[in-house]
Amino acid sequence: MSEEVRVPTLPESVADAVVVSWHKKVGDSVKRDENLVDIETDKVVLEVPATTDGVITEILEPEGATVVAEQLLAKLEAGEVAELAPPVKTEAPATDSPGQDEAVITPSARKLMAEKGIEASSIQGSGKGGRVLKEDVLAWLEQQQTASTNAAAPASPAATVEAPGSEPDSGERVEQRVPMTRLRAKVAERLLDAQHNAAILTTFNEVNMQPVMDLRSRYKEKFEKQYGVKLGFMSFFIKACIEALRAFPAVNASIDGNDIVYHGYFDIGVAVSSPRGLVVPVLRDADQMNLAEIESGIGAYAEKARDNSLAIEDMTGGTFTISNGGVFGSLLSTPILNPPQSGILGMHKIQQRAVVEDGEIVARPMMYLALSYDHRIIDGNEAVQFLVTIKECLEDPARMIIGV
User: Fold this and answer.
1) Apex CA 114: angle with CA 111 and CA 115, to 5°?
2) 196 assigned to active site
3) The overall pTM is greater than 0.90
4) Would you identify the CATH topology of the domain 2-88?
5) Predicted confidence (pLDDT) per residue in 111-135, tens digit
């Protein structure tokens, strides 16, 4: 009996998807629930499993094809044929070496390797469990380009040491054209839309991180021992933001047509990096979480982002976003709104700076804060006071405990 493999139902906000990588080919035996193909939306990579045991008889949509919900992807003949075949390992695409397990190659890496004709056995994965990431493939390509450039330079038997000031003259001007991933294209579209359709302003302040650093240093070992998770800075910032959002509800609101929607809950998006680009998973009802639950939730999302296993529901919604450019060394930036949200907080690098306290110049670990906001519904004085509230909460963390 013939069975059909179709694109799963996509969320309302997702119109179509792209076939990233087939794990099976025509004639291969498959098991029920075994992943057959990865498809990429502008939010996540989805796995499409086999609906029954059988053999693939036809693949209708090749890698790179654009598909919509319920579109037919492949057909398979159901039966016990697969039971007679030896256990099937997930195979790499035809361009990869059969010695490399496909399961440890991310979809974006597989696609790039297929485009460049790279054998999987050539690349050492740096991800969790040896997983090959897109960054690994790009690094390998750069190494090969460097080696090719060096090899193109004139050589002689005695040329093991070049004369001072000499440089290889390959005469090559190399360019590389790589299509945007669906996620990158969607991020570009949304950010451009935000700039065109919102009156974005940014206000700045700075915070002395010494009180939080002292508190964290005092309790971090006991905290980790008790809760099994490290105590970071982000949980303090999320708690401080919630206090500020309570005081200034317009920053937690959004615009829907001619209406302002005030949200009576606090779903905080936390921007994290992934092999596919920047993603913003959401901590729902963050006001009901303690520091340990916040840190645990962020850690779980970060791991899922690295493994490209974030679900669509992990990234939908959100009433306010926090972005930490400081982990990459950013000293100051102006974050862009994440529509339809009306505010986003930018954290930055902690740096020792000279400040004046009680008429004396002292060194303190300072961080610049940036709040970008939609001026259509948030007035400048509200934005400034919102940021001051965050500053006060962080410089005196006890305020968040006793609620003053």
Assistant:
1) 85
2) no
3) no
4) OB fold (Dihydrolipoamide Acetyltransferase, E2P) (2.40.50)
5) 778 777 787 777 877 766 677 777 7
